[in-house]
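Note to self: keep these together.
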Amino acid sequence: MSKIIGIDLGTSNSAAAVLEGGKPKIIPSAEGMTMYGKAFPSVVAFTKQGELLVGEPARRQAVSNPEATITAAKRKMGTNYKYKIQGKEYTPQQISAFILQKIKRDAEAFLGEKVDKAVITVPAYFDDNQRQATKDAGTIAGLEVVRIINEPTAAALSYGLDKTHAHKVLVFDLGGGTLDVTIMEFEDGVFEVKSTSGDTQLGGTDMDAALVDYLVKEFKKTEGIDLSKDKVAMQRLSEAAEKAKIELSTVMDTEINLPFITANQDGPKHFNIKLTRAKLEQIVEPIIKRCKHPVEQALSDAKISAKDIEKIILVGGPTRMPIVQKFVEEITG
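Structure:
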């Protein structure tokens, strides 16, 4: 019987694992762990020669080829949106299928056997169209999708496998593109989902975009040049913003330094700015405030108050940010 792999098909990054001896084993990509320890960046690109690149190879060339690089396809799942690249059209399902094919291929190389079955996680707040689109992507990739599991449920499963005493748990799952808030009750190794709430258009990529917007305005203020129409400059700024955001989870200030960001009649221009954690928090605060309603909604639907929550599980890259942790602490008391 062939192994069933588990896949977290993420907005910014994806991951995969397999159960061996009752314990999960992370499946690495052919390139190994890449930026920030992520195995499979959710990036798809086409070179000028029409070659398909997926994952880290696609991410590496995004700056030089922004027009033919696709990111965050998960946000378009379940819609009629079409990506137009080099005269061809691709659905979000097809783009997601390219990522799943890459995971399937690398899993087979790592495990040394054929992989044709998978469990794929989706945001709890995904509607039927988005869930079906995810299954379709798996089918296109040559995978039998044995089950679609809600991401917070998967997180709680990994947390609760060896827990026996009864308690109420809030899973706060803030990823690259989606927010899920789920309240569960554990008892005797069994858990019951009491409520779920969220926002499928809220995540770390919104923080990156807000930071990029700030950087563009600052550059225009000092140099009089609007970078927002320059796709290559914007891609460089986007990557630098994400890197700075991650760094500022552990340090109080960082520097964004992008030489030759653009040029005018006076010659080349360089982008250099010092960014503090306090400034970043000021920029992303409106986005974090949007997390408040889903948390309150989940508590209300579960008919419990914040003080009844005995355990909080934080999931997703942005939850490493001190401002996000502080927000969760404050709203849950």
